[in-house]
Amino acid sequence: MMKSKSQILDELLVLQARRGDREAFEQLVVKWHTKLVYQSQLRTHNREQSQDIVQDVWQWLIGHLYKLEDVAHFGSWIRTIVDRRSIDWLRKQKHNVELNNQSYERDRTIDTGTADGDSSTENTEQSLSQLEQAMASLPAENKLVLTLYYMESHSIEGIAQILGIPKGTVKSRLYHTREKLKKILNEQHHEKYE
To answer: Residues in domain RNA polymerase sigma factor 70 region 4 type (predicted)?
Structure first.
C-alpha cells in the first residue's frame, strides 16, 4: 500500500523530533491535536477533560517518542495512547459518566461553501443536523468506530489496532452501528412527515 503525503510527513517529523528538533515536534502537535481531542471527546463526553488528556499525552510523548518502534505507525500509536488515557479517565470518573447512555453535543461550525439562503445549503445543514442527532444517541464505542472509519479513513485493521480490539469486532460494530443509524434516521423521517 502506498503511503500518503500526510503519513510521510508524520514519519519525517517524528524522526526529526526524536533528534531533538523542537519545531518538528510542534508541527506534530499542530497537525494532530484537534483530531486527538475530538477522539478523546467521543469517549469522555467532556471537551475540557479531553483537552487535558491530550495535553498530558503530548507532555508524556516528549520523553517517550523513542518508544515508537516504527515511525510509520505514529498515527495509530498516538491514537491508541489517547484512547487508553481517555478510558482510564472514564474508569476513574465512573460514577459521573454513564458511557452508553449519555449523549453530548459537539460545538462545530459547518462550512458548506454555498451562499446563505440557498435551499440546497439548508437541506444539507438539516441532513447533517439529523445525522449528528442520530449519532449523539449512539454509544461512544460506536461513534468512535464510525469517526475513525468514515471521517479519518482508517482501515478495519488500523481501527482494530488503535482500539485494541479484534478486526471482527470492528466489522461488527460498523455493521450494527450503520443499521442502527439507518433505523434512527428512518424514524426521524417518518416523524417529520406524520
So the answer is: 130-181
